[in-house]
Amino acid sequence: MGDDRKTTRTKKRKVTDTETEVPPTENPVKTRKKNAQVSSSTQPERTIPTIPLTNGTSTPMSIPQLGFGTYRLKQSAVKPPLRLALLQSYPLLDTASVYNNEKQIGELLCALSLATPPFISTKLWRSHQGSPKIITQNLQKSLRALDVPAIDLYLLHWPGPGHHRFKKYQVPQDWTPQMRIETWKTMTSFLKTGECRAVGVSNFTIRHLEQLKAECEIIPAVNQIECHPFLVQKELRDYCKKDGIVVMAYCSLGEGDKKLLTHPAITNCADAVGKTPAQVLLRWAVEHGMVVIPCSTSEAHQKENMDIFEWELGEEWMAKLDSLDCGVRYGWKGQDPEDVP
Ligand SMILES: NC(=O)c1ccc[n+]([C@@H]2O[C@H](COP(=O)([O-])OP(=O)(O)OC[C@H]3O[C@@H](n4cnc5c(N)ncnc54)[C@H](OP(=O)(O)O)[C@@H]3O)[C@@H](O)[C@H]2O)c1
């Protein structure tokens, strides 16, 4: 992130009807007229740390350590919570073509016209692997929907193929692990065209990363994986660290699961450090050097989730939380990336 990001959004679009879905007291049309550029919120200024990204180009870049996840906020459901998050200065938003909300995010960003636009990560869906033409078309679709000239971070969503919902065959039907490599090579070509500022992967295991490394010049800038004290992923994180791959953790709050949020070790830790269980879980990931992207529809939770810097858990609590590792996965309904060839 830096000043160069201020030029990312060049086009201005008219506010569409769908923007009437934001609360009436916060009429976006008025906001735009009064404030061509919305720059601040009622929140105190907070500095969110950034982590340098190795993006395979000579242009230095970094990623904010906190962002807002938008999975499950389909179509216009994304606007009210994301608007709140952006006005509280969340510096990053995470989406994916499969979340079916890129267009609404683009509309909201255009309506807000923030002085510093957020860092955007989005993802190529697993079924869209294969020919450069298909991959390029999908990137173009995301660029158009988000209404930006370049994606800050473009991730391959899953190392394997998709599945036809009814017919039960894989998509693409001719998928092989080699297709993942070809897909990655096409994705890295977008660094040269300038349509992506960094490219990365998601849900890759060490085996998948090793394969990429053996066959490709550019290694991923980021691996977005599920990670929380019930799924510590130490070996994978250590591997990424060694290769300069930034780990972005998802499901840090276990999708809100009470078993994680009210686990005695987490609540005891929260009491000891004077924070909430959610803050402890997010801080645990941050202290391990990861980027976090919690999702929340609640303004109070969003505020809470931002207050995870400028204090520490310390080695002893970190070790206690690490010891909760039990291999629980919340994402992907029981699918395990380890099973992808
Ligand atoms: N790459 C991938 O394959 C992948 C997979 C899954 C997710 N992701 C990304 O990661 C993001 C985060 O994951 P997620 O949305 O699945 O789950 P999550 O962030 O772990 O959990 C979200 C849930 O936690 C609750 N919550 C948020 N803040 C809280 C707080 N302070 N106290 C108590 N509860 C709180 C939310 O409820 P309220 O709305 O009531 O606050 C919501 O139900 C996604 O949105 C998506 O961007 C990526």
UniProtKB/TrEMBL annotation:
Keyword set, alphabetical order: NADP, Oxidoreductase
Highest taxon of the lineage: Eukaryota
Feature: compositional bias, Polar residues: 36-45
UniProt domain NADP-dependent oxidoreductase: residue ranges: 66-324
GO molecular function, one term: oxidoreductase activity, acting on the CH-OH group of donors, NAD or NADP as acceptor
Oxidoreductase recorded as keyword: yes
UniProt-listed PROSITE patterns: ALDOKETO_REDUCTASE_2
Matches recorded under InterPro entries: AKR, Aldo/ket_reductase_CS, NAD(P)_OxRdtase_dom_sf, NADP_OxRdtase_dom
Keyword presence, NADP: yes
Region (Disordered): 1-58
Signal sequence range: none
Pfam families attached to this UniProt entry: Aldo_ket_red
Family, as annotated: Belongs to the aldo/keto reductase family.
PANTHER family with a match to the protein in the record: 2,5-DIKETO-D-GLUCONIC ACID REDUCTASE, NADP-DEPENDENT OXIDOREDUCTASE DOMAIN-CONTAINING PROTEIN
Protein name: NADP-dependent oxidoreductase domain-containing protein
Gene source species: Rhizophlyctis rosea
Top-level taxonomy: Eukaryota, Fungi, Fungi incertae sedis, Chytridiomycota, Chytridiomycota incertae sedis
